């Protein structure tokens, strides 16, 4: 890794220490955010640090009294982190509507995590394709701003919102610049490195993250393209921060060159189109972003978006990282698989849980690679 | 067969075997290759001479993969008078594939079973069911034995060889007899409702208490195992010809029930189905050696 991405790695591994230090340094509030549809612009303009709740990939036994065992592992792991006190530095918790399982996890979090002082549920429309969606979401973001003004006890000026839009747009732009390096043959940025960068953007102070991205971008161009890429993979699914899995995939003769996941591109892919009204800028941005399956009907816009990503980044094949019991993604899977395969992108399906069996996964990935490679064995 | 004080019978212990083809002279061969399949329950070593099966050794895997690999190949070496240095290329496969100390290359058991099945069952084989010690796999391949699609059971070892071993011990009937005894019933029972090794064990005890004969309990377990692997097969579809590899392929109680549910006969072979992975590995070694030779000549 040559150390270039070490800061991102350290932020990821010590993310709770980072947030506590930020709080001590700035005196600002930290907010646990669930789902990447959260309009972070409002929180940042209110002087807060949005920290996305991620799991810990450890066995846990604290969520059973609160949510069903057949809720997705990401929901269960996210709730477990709250119940175990790992986010005890967060004053608030907020969820923007995506899936019903996540909403249940959020409800348990706000009711049972004792350190939570305030919570906010933002009822974003799931049918973002409806002509009424933006009108509704505009009203909801406006209400969210008013609620946050109540929390901090002062108005949030338009100028502050515009500033946070700028900072977030810069973050999105820089991440896309970084991801551009993944289009190269023998890319200078691996899937693990890219994941560290996109994940940390979701809980590190954005201005600090931007400065680190600028530093890395200046250096990464000097890296040699000497790592053999092997088979170029795309990953598809909901949240994924299983670094050990990603590293295993990239250690057996492949490179992950792009993703359609909310831990990756779906979080930052589109910038906000700046309009005079900052609330409209924010509301429209989240309606326009690459859709999560919960917000992708009646038309399946993400099928062509995913295929375009695969083609643009020259992915040879795709791996579905399916969170067990994630109904929205599982519902898309058969048609999206067919769409990719009909267009020359073979796929592999792996079912993720809170902890994942790396050995059996490795067999599947290696066997998949063997089906994709030239016929050296025959 | 009942246990006596101080003597614990291991009903689950299947027959280890070592065989070489006395009609072949390995010293006359141009290329000798080996495949070592270190699985979770059993380990096999197969030696091929010029791309043909020469000998194999099949034994239980120990607690150390490198030792299991060494012990497996040693059986063939001892029986044939061969030395390890006489083998020009070794391919490791199975769970312990990266821990075969003398292997030149590791290849997944999915690819190796498909290649082995292609050799054992002929190039018309398109669907392979590998029923191993702790997992099972449904595999599609082309006429060369190249994998085109595959599925593995998820996480749980239910419906695999280990489950059959547990039932064998519970019923106190040698594992090799289970299959035949499952047909010796007054009427075919329903499948046990769970193939989870732990739950099935409890359910089997319950059935015995309810008056089932041992044979009927075994039949119920064989049926459950067949139904489970058929559900895996049906997820990728079954195309003719159909071939079964792995230790459970030797259990007619499961195989016949799978055939009945699918309405299709599995291709028969005289070669031990348990060596398919190691055989495929040895055959890959042969191809790789041929290609190395060809590229060396070209250079």
From TrEMBL, chain A:
Keywords: Iron, Iron-sulfur, Metal-binding. It holds the Pfam family HGD-D. InterPro entries: Benzoyl-CoA_Rdtase_bzd_nsu, FldB/FldC_alpha/beta. The keyword Iron applies. GO terms for molecular function: iron-sulfur cluster binding; metal ion binding. Gene3D superfamilies: 1.20.1270.370, 3.40.50.11890, 3.40.50.11900. The keyword Iron applies. NCBIfam families: benz_CoA_bzdN (TIGR03190). Belongs to the FldB/FldC dehydratase alpha/beta subunit family. This is Benzoyl-CoA reductase, bzd-type, subunit N. It comes from Candidatus Desulfobacillus denitrificans.
TrEMBL record, chain B:
InterPro entries: ATPase_BadF, ATPase_NBD, Benzoyl-CoA_Rdtase_bzd_qsu, CoA_E_activase_dom, Dehydratase_Activator_Redct. SUPFAM superfamilies: Actin-like ATPase domain (SSF53067). Pfam families: BcrAD_BadFG (PF01869). Residues 35-285 form the ATPase BadF/BadG/BcrA/BcrD type domain. Keywords: Iron, Iron-sulfur, Metal-binding. One of its GO terms (molecular function) is iron-sulfur cluster binding. CDD domains: ASKHA_NBD_benz_CoA_BzdQ. NCBIfam families: benz_CoA_bzdQ (TIGR03192), CoA_E_activ (TIGR00241). This is Benzoyl-CoA reductase, bzd-type, subunit Q. The lineage of its organism: Bacteria, Pseudomonadati, Pseudomonadota, Betaproteobacteria, Candidatus Desulfobacillus.
């Amino acid at each position: 890794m040559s150390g270039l991405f070490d800061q991102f790695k350290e932020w990821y591994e010590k993310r709770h220490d980072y947030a506590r230090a930020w709080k001590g340094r700035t005196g600002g509030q930290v907010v646990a955010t669930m789902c990447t549809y959260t309009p972070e612009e409002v929180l940042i303009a209110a002087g807060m640090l949005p920290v996305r709740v991620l799991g810990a990939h450890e066995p846990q036994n604290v969520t059973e009294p609160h949510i069903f065992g057949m809720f997705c592992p990401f929901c269960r792991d996210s709730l477990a982190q709250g119940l175990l006190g790992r986010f005890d530095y967060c004053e608030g918790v907020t969820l923007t509507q995506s899936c019903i399982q996540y909403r249940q996890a959020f409800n348990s979090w706000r009711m049972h995590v004792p350190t939570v002082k305030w919570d906010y549920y933002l009822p974003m429309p799931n049918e973002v394709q409806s002509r009424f969606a933006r009108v509704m979401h505009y009203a909801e973001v406006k209400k969210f701003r008013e609620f946050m003004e109540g929390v901090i006890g002062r108005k949030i000026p338009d100028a502050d919102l515009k500033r946070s839009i700028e900072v977030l747009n810069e973050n999105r732009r820089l991440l896309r610049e970084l991801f551009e390096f993944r289009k190269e043959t023998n890319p200078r940025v691996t899937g693990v490195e890219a994941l560290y960068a996109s994940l940390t953007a979701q809980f590190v102070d954005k201005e600090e993250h931007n400065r680190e991205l600028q530093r890395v971008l200046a250096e990464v161009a000097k890296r040699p393209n000497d790592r053999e890429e092997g088979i170029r993979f795309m990953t598809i699914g909901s949240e994924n921060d299983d670094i050990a899995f990603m590293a295993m995939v990239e250690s057996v003769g492949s490179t992950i060159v792009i993703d359609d996941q909310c831990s990756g591109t779906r979080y930052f892919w589109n910038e906000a189109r700046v309009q005079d009204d900052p609330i409209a800028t924010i509301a429209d941005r989240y309606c326009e972003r690459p859709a999560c399956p919960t917000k992708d009907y009646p038309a399946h816009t993400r099928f062509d978006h995913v295929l375009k990503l695969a083609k643009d980044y020259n992915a040879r094949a795709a791996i579905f990282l399916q969170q067990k019991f994630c109904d929205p993604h599982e519902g898309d899977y058969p048609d999206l698989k067919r769409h990719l395969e009909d267009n020359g992108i073979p796929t592999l399906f792996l079912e993720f849980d809170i902890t994942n069996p790396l050995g059996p996964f490795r067999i599947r990935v290696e066997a998949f690679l063997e089906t994709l490679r030239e016929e050296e064995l025959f | 067969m009942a246990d006596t004080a101080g003597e614990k019978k291991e009903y689950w212990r299947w027959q280890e075997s070592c065989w070489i083809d006395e009609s072949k002279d390995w010293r006359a061969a141009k290329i000798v290759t080996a495949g070592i399949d270190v699985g979770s329950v059993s380990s096999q070593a197969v030696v091929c001479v010029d791309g043909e099966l020469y000998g194999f050794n099949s034994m239980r895997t120990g607690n150390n993969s490198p030792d299991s690999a060494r012990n497996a190949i040693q059986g063939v070496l001892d029986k044939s008078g061969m030395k390890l240095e006489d083998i020009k290329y070794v391919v490791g496969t199975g769970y312990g594939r990266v821990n075969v100390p003398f292997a030149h290359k590791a290849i997944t058991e999915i690819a190796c079973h498909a290649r082995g099945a292609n050799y054992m069952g002929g190039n018309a084989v398109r669907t392979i069911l590998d029923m191993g010690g702790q997992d099972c796999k449904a595999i599609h391949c082309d006429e060369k034995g190249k994998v085109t699609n595959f599925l593995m059971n998820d996480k749980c070892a239910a419906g695999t060889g280990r489950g059959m071993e547990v039932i064998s011990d519970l019923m106190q009937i040698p594992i090799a007899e289970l299959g035949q005894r499952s047909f010796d019933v007054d009427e075919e029972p329903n499948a046990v409702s769970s193939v989870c090794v732990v739950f099935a064990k409890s359910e089997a005890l319950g059935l015995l208490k309810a008056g089932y004969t041992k044979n009927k309990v075994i039949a119920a377990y064989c049926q459950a195992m067949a139904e489970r692997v058929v559900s895996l097969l049906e997820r990728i579809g079954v195309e003719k010809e159909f071939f079964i590899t792995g230790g459970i392929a030797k259990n007619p109680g499961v195989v016949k029930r799978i055939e009945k549910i699918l309405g299709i006969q599995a291709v028969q072979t005289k070669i031990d189905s348990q060596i398919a992975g190691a055989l495929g590995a040895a055959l890959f070694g042969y191809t790789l050696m041929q290609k190395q030779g060809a590229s060396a000549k070209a250079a």
